[in-house]
Amino acid sequence: MSQTRITIRPLRLTDAHHVYEIMHMPNVLWGLSVLPSTTADAWSTIVEQWVADEHMHVFVAEIQEKAIGIICVRVRTGRESHVGDVTLAVHDKHQRQGIGKMLLITALDLADNWLNLVRLELAVYTDNEQAIRLCQQFDFAIEGRKHYDAFRGGAYIDSYMLARLHIATNSINATNEPKETTGETPQ
To answer: Average model confidence (pLDDT) for the chain?
Structure first.
């Protein structure tokens, strides 16, 4: 029995046709607010923009040189530069195989250990129990519900707003006030 090697790596311009395929899978279309009418050329442009944008951090899961999953972390700017927005999609043929989990682990490592993001947010349709469970495994909590958030399959659907806080204990205390310093040097 052979094992399939899955590689997680940054997005490349050459992944555009795979991203197009992923985003047009029935389960992905059902779970994200993308339209089935988005063309391959449009996805190529989107991928080009993502690669060029210093605030977008995109990874793909790859099997045999084909991207089969994608996760995006968009870092906000200004007074929200400590916040990242997450989007995740896995090709229908590769769902429920741990690929979403691998991608999310990669995004959390980037957010926590490289970008120093305090807050990650994502929206999940209320009927996407699989995605909700995955996020909750990594300390995302439901913070609210957006009623009539999207139109899908001929009806409006609500979504949950989920967030994960990762607060470094040496910079912020429980009241979100900066820690006081005594001016003394530790011995």
So the answer is: 90
Provide φ and ψ at 127, rounded to 5°: -95, 5
pLDDT for the residue numbered 131:
95
3-state secondary structure the chain: CCCCCCEEEECCHHHHHHHHHHHCCHHHHHHCCCCCCCCHHHHHHHHHHHHHCCCEEEEEEEECCEEEEEEEEEECCHHHCCEEEEEEEECHHHCCCCHHHHHHHHHHHHHHHCCCCCEEEEEEECCCHHHHHHHHHCCCEEEEEEEEEEEECCEEEEEEEEEEECCCCCCECCCCCECCCCCCCCC
Q: Angle, to 10 degrees, between the axis of helix 129-137 and the axis of helix 99-113? A: 40
Domains recognised in the chain with CATH numbers:
7-165 (3.40.630.30)
Q: What is the pLDDT of residues 71-95, one digit of tens each?
A: 999 999 999 999 999 999 999 999 9
Cβ neighbours for 22, distance < 8 A, ≥ 6 positions apart: 28, 67, 68, 69, 70, 89, 90, 91
| This prediction's pTM | 0.85
d(CA 40, CA 24): 10
Residues 91 and 103 sit within 8 Å (Cβ to Cβ) = no
Confidence class of residue 187 from pLDDT cuts 50, 70 and 90? very low
